[in-house]
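YM 10:42: oligopeptidase A sequence, as discussed on the call
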Amino acid sequence: MQHVVPTVGSLVESCAKRITVLEDKLRADPEMLDLNEMETLCLDLGRAWGAVHHLNMVQSSSELRDAIEQVQPQVVELMANLSQSEPISKAYQSMAATLPAAQGENEVTRIVDSALRDAKLSGIFASPEDRERIKKLQMELSRLSHTFRSNVVASRGAWSHTVTDPKDLAGVPDHLLKGLAVNPEQWQEGPWKLDLTQSCMELVKYCQARPTRELLYRASIVVASTGEWDNSQGLVDILQRRQDLAQLLGYGNYADVSLASKSADSTATVESFLTALGHKAQGAARVELEELRALAQELDQLDDLKPWDTGYYAEKLSESLPRVSTFSYLSDLCWSRASKTKFKINSAEVQQYFPADHVMAVFFDFLTTLFGVRIQDATAELEPETLWDPHVRYFQVADADSNKPIASFFLDLYARPGAKSPGAWMDNCVDRSAHLKTVPVAHMVLNLQPPSGGTPTLMSLRDVETLFHEFGHALQHMLTTVAGINNIEWDVVELPSQFMENWVYHKPLLRRLTRHHESGKPMPESMIDSIVAARTFMSGSFTARQVFFSLLDLSLHVSPPTSAEEAVQRQQSMSEAFLARPLLPEDRFLLQFLHIFGGGYAAGYWSYKWAEVLAADAFGRFEEDGALAETAEGERKLEAIGREFRATILAQGGSQNPLRTFEDFRGRPVDYAAFYRQLNLDATQGQ
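YM 10:58: structure's back
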């Protein structure tokens, strides 16, 4: 950690000198702009700063966070100066004017257009006084976002609760108890330590002790809301400074700023899409909630279903779904528990069939079939000190036909409470560059429960979906034939990740992914049928919740609140409008909403749902063309269409408008039908 401040400081200084030299050259002759030179201008700083950011996400400490706070203003100021450079901006304008119109859109035009757009969003056309104000706001926002994220990590890591009475964890599966045990050798006797990691929160679905469920739930909804890690004022400050920034840039609000780098044409278009989707999901969500209430009354004479009960009774309900391939939320689901033909979907039992090492091996083999890439573990080729944790693994990716190396990635699977940020993500370590002759390197990060007490890491079905999702991002980064994913509009960047989730429910692959960690037997066919049939279980509630998050995000950035109290009030009123059951008044989830306050999704959380539309339609081509059939012809089509997806969606990256790339693959503009079909929502419902 002691090297961060001097190293980054030195790199900032050397990069600033190179910028000055370049500006002098371009003032004399704007046509001297060289895109290769721009690529390398601050490359060393970018890689070093990226490494520091990565370590803060996966192995954070108070020392590292302090070091980042010291040097972050220097980095942000330098990047602002670069974006606001008049000589460089004028050189890009000159280059844009000389590009042949007949050449059309390509990688070069996209780079130039992106650079000019970024310059505009950095205030290049503002007055000198306003540019300084914009730069100051950007520095403040960077600091505030860093603090917001750090507070969430620290607050989550600080909470724990020790359980000594086994009755308080009755019903919790053995593999979870082993991971929670203070002494893994005595996991049956306890004590057990609860925390706010994703794997621990899983026990809410199984724990019969209602007070334990309530304890965990209440702790999870007030993260970063009190004491030294309180994000209340930070949230208000972020929103107000974003609004100030938008006005200085000539926009009415920050939502309009966000849309400038997306394919959607207006906030009204986004709101229309979300509102229509929300109306379609609300009826389904209400029926789902009534089902849970009825089940809670039937099983436990529970008259007042609370939020900490929802996951538990949803798990119980999933154990008695009707044996059907599809069902309508507004008809069959109402009668699901009355059905005489039932099968069990017990999440704890399902998890026994997903040992992580087996899932990874089968998944990587499937990628060879689908995209023609071969993935091999190369951890042994690295020096141990190269890895930030002993459990991290390193893989090399090669083209399956030519065996030519094309990329590599690091895989960090396990949770580290207090040190590692929650959730899962992919980020780029090295970009592809023809000029530098570099191939992509990615970081793949999850938060699984590590092996414990002789039990391997077992993945829930949601964990498997998350793996496929994040690897979709990694594939976009690693298989592009152009410069990474940076020029892809933000509302389309989730397309490959959402697309990959569909394969979890492809029966031939699902059969191969499963192997009981003790017996080695594959998952019974009846259980596989159950999983596929229940894919849309509770999806009305999930969709309504995502719409609520998205519309709240937009609302906060269109009309920012002036106090944390006002923000919470808006959260509450919008939850009443869009959720089947409103949030608890004490819920402070906004104070840990990292996607929009500590990440890159400000006024853009809705892009997840829009990308689902694209992903469902893309996957629909495999369905329509017979590529999912379990025949030799189906296998042939699977490989052919998969390689076409690689050659278009993945390979072309940001070299052209991604909606045009989508049309290249699909043969037509996007259609919503597959999206609504996947959600089991009638395309006309709610209209």
